[in-house]
């Protein structure tokens, strides 16, 4: 596993992001044959996996995609909306969204921005910590499957 070279305070968002990126890079280096992860369920603290939950291969691909977003930034808003909508975004929706924007800015200017930042910061911190644990679990389960467990 890669060692973090930067030193930030423990609860700093940058620390959590660096740890996530390092764990996912390690996962990518360890998992040489991702197809082995198909049909393997993510265990929930030693108990049986829930019915209908994603397999480890789905987690593997999701964690890699999120790493790319964290490292390289997000798609511009319109490209992201087109991707989510499956390319079905039309000009009418875009124009409607643009006319609502000034009102949206006015309302957001009235909100307590510090409280909003704290909420989003705490949520992002929690999500990245949770995803880091998932990446460690995918790596551990792959190593068990291939006999590389430490």
UniProtKB/TrEMBL annotation:
Repressor as UniProt keyword: no
Residue numbers spanned by region Disordered: 85-104
InterPro entries documented for this protein: Lipogen_MT_Stabilize_sf, Spot_14
One annotated Gene Ontology cellular component of this protein: nucleus
Keyword match Chaperone: no
Acidic residues bias: start-end ranges: 95-104
A Pfam family assignment: Spot_14
Keyword annotations: Cytoplasm, Nucleus
Similarity comment: Belongs to the SPOT14 family.
Protein name per its UniProtKB record: Thyroid hormone-inducible hepatic protein
Organism the protein comes from: Muntiacus reevesi (Reeves' muntjac)
